[in-house]
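Protein modeling request. Please complete all fields; requests missing the sequence field cannot be processed.
Requester role: graduate student
Desired output: 3D structure, token encoding
Chains: 1
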Amino acid sequence: MTAGLWAFAGCMNVGDNPYEDSLNDLTVRTEYPEGYESFRRSGVDVKVENTLTGDSYTLLTMSDGSAEGRFPNGIYRISLSDRSGGDIFNATRDGVRLDNGPLSVSLSLLHSKAGTLVIKELYVGGCSRAPQEGTYQADQYMIIHNNDTQTAYLDSLCLGTLSPYNSNSSDPWADYPDKDFVPVIQAVWQIGGKGKSFPLAPGADAVICLKGAIDHSLQYPLSVNLNNSAYFVCYNSTYFPNTTFHPAPGDQIRQDHILGVAIKTGQANAYAISITSPAMVIFRAKGTTIQDYVLQAGNVIQIPGSSSEQAVCIPYDWVIDGVEVFDGRQSSNSKRLPSSIDAGYVTQTDTFHGHSLFRRTDEEATAEKGFEVLMDTNNSSNDLYERQTQSLHE
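Delivered output (394 residues):
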């Protein structure tokens, strides 16, 4: 059977299967958080994905919040994403094994609120050097979007990438007890400002250059021009002196748009972000500054199994938005972000083709509010897609 996405109401059978005798009954029961039980309803998508074959199916909940289906033996990822107004409910359960018998599993949903700031685009996979030979990856960027009706301020906003770097890498945190943080590695970058120095209007975007803030397209036409006075840039020649990836910012870049390094934890001379499958977050410290936080005992820890690499423990409730990227060329991808931040993932199928990961527009909300509103269910499987060219490509 080829991979696909099928929807079934209530109960589902994988029909016309020559291995009918090996199909297993699966019952999924949803558990909404205390105080939110009234949000339970029928017709909510439950995604059931075979992590070994890539086959994907969608069940629909019944009135009691449960969903049923029959599936071949395998190891499955089960996820649910539901939204009512600004209330979002997500859950993901990995490693569900179906093996010659019925199984009932519970999905404990986590509650979160739709964010003001969302990650609109991640361009990390690089492009071709055409008409020259070779590939290019020194032009990574992120776009942040204000999805709210009120002006947002970027002052003190931080960003980072998570451990492990790649979605198919062994997860060093798998056996870490009661982890209630996201492990940010390499560095924590922060926008400056005193509180209201960097306003972002409703529906507006802010570009953050993760590598060189120069016009890359001058030499490589399939790349992008990042030399723009409105853009921000991750640049620090002391911590990251590799000029191939961090050249001096272009002549249009404002000095106050150069992000600071709150802490560097890695050993690399260039800021390392996976080109295949990063997990990225934007966040802001609460009740303290990020500079004070990283100095406190227990907030910067050794990555399990590593003698040299450290991670900054960013509490879940500091995270404003996060995007999980899976490598489409691999079958052994694992999640790094919890369901409350990103219950799903967006797949990048290949590198060095100028592809980016881009957030869908919420057409109904956009028409209602009169400015661009993007999809935000805290589930990248629903909210983002792989775009064939960078949005900044001219």
